[in-house]
Amino acid sequence: MTDIQHVSRPFVPPYLLERIASGGSQRLRECARHTLLADRQFRAREGAAHLPQGSSARGQVVRYIYSAGQRQELPGRLVRREGDEAESGDAAIDEAYHGLGATYRYFWEKHQRHSIDDRGMALQATVHFGRDYENAFWDGTQMVFGDGDGELFNRFTIALDIIAHELTHGVIQHEADLVYAHQAGALNESLSDVFGSLVKQYRLGQRVEEADWLIGAGLFTERVAGRALRSMADPGSAYDDPLLGRDPQPGHMRDFVETEDDNGGVHINSGIPNRAFHRLAMALGGHAWDVAGPLWYATLLDERLGRESDFTAFAELTLDNAGQRYGQGSREWTATRDAWRDVGVAVR
Amino acid sequence: MNAGTECQPPPLGISSRLSLRREGGIAHFPGLAQPRLVCCDRLGEAQRERLWQLLAEAARCAAAPMATDAVDRRRFHLAIEDAEGRCQWSVELDEQQMPGALLRLWRDHKPLSRG
Ligand SMILES: [Zn+2]
């Protein structure tokens, strides 16, 4: 459904002529500005050394929320920090603050993990990043959330699982550090979705059959024909919209998408391991954080999980961990094996 | 700022086409990832010159260091194609490095909104 109406559309963008008279000096100014911006970001990424004070008490979260004030600058201005209990009244700031808190609490209470690095690293997030910025990302040190364009996307802090998704990228970076391309990258993405969904389910106290298993529900405005960014239960069904196109996620290896787009399909093929996790959780029933979540967490921390692992390597390790915890042939072990077989990933 | 002449775009002729593609981000939206095309036959000479300057600027900005640990970020792929659709020149850059005017060009060339 490639709509290239714009090819034949009358095209007279005035800004192509803007400032042409001022020529080189303006170009140099522009480029210098962009280079400066990039440099600043590069410095900001030099490492967690530049993060503010973390938490020395295990079980105690330390959060810092900044506002970029619609500019593309990191981290921006500090607007809420740990212990500021009064709501700011700014939805993005308050959602980020509570979302980071809920994510910390899940990892601590369910996996005894003390923040992103398990050593109390400060949780830092910037909201109001850019103008009409319709994205959220992990920059290697902190989380960043745009306000959305209001046309297709709402603000990105609106969905707790999105906040948890970005924070989990930090956890992955400190553990398996899966390469962000092809199957390893799709595993990276899938793990962020899995823990994003787990954080949301835990926060809402949901049993597996009560959870929506969607990623990013609430992000789309009412103008979009879609429910969310992704569906873990039924990959490929999250949206089908004239502007966004159709959800491209497969839920089975026979539909695996070979592509160089999207870092080799990291946000596309993640549908396959996402669905395996959903299958396992549904087969076991109860709360997904009781058995399935800890199995995936143990596998993320497993030293045998290499940076370039593919789906099969990851699946084999989940099965091995299930065997170690519950015994080979146990209900949990069998359900894990069947979940992977259901999505076409060959395991023993 | 590395202004290597080898990364400079070729001159834009009347039959050149610029393809702008954005990819990455927290999800892959096939509709938004479609290349957006700017056909030079619809531009006057001064506009083509201005466009060329912007592409040269993009090439210089692309030389800045990239984030290695960043995930869910977006990137732009710019390419000049000849009349036969052959790629003559291309550059990839982080969205932060993208010159504002080219960003607006990408925005303005989105598929038309539904009626
Ligand atoms: Zn992600």
From TrEMBL, chain A:
Keywords: Hydrolase, Metal-binding, Metalloprotease, Protease, Secreted, Zinc. It is found in: Secreted. GO terms for molecular function: metal ion binding; metalloendopeptidase activity. The active site is at E166, H267 (proton donor). Its EC number is 3.4.24.-. It holds the Pfam family Peptidase_M4_C. Its cofactor is Zn(2+). Residues 66-173 form the Peptidase M4 domain. The keyword Ribosomal protein does not apply. It is an enzyme of class 3 (hydrolase). The keyword Zinc applies. Belongs to the peptidase M4 family. This is Neutral metalloproteinase. It comes from Halomonas salipaludis.
UniProtKB/TrEMBL annotation, chain B:
This is Uncharacterized protein. InterPro entries: Emfourin. Pfam families: Emfourin (PF20242). It comes from the Bacteria.
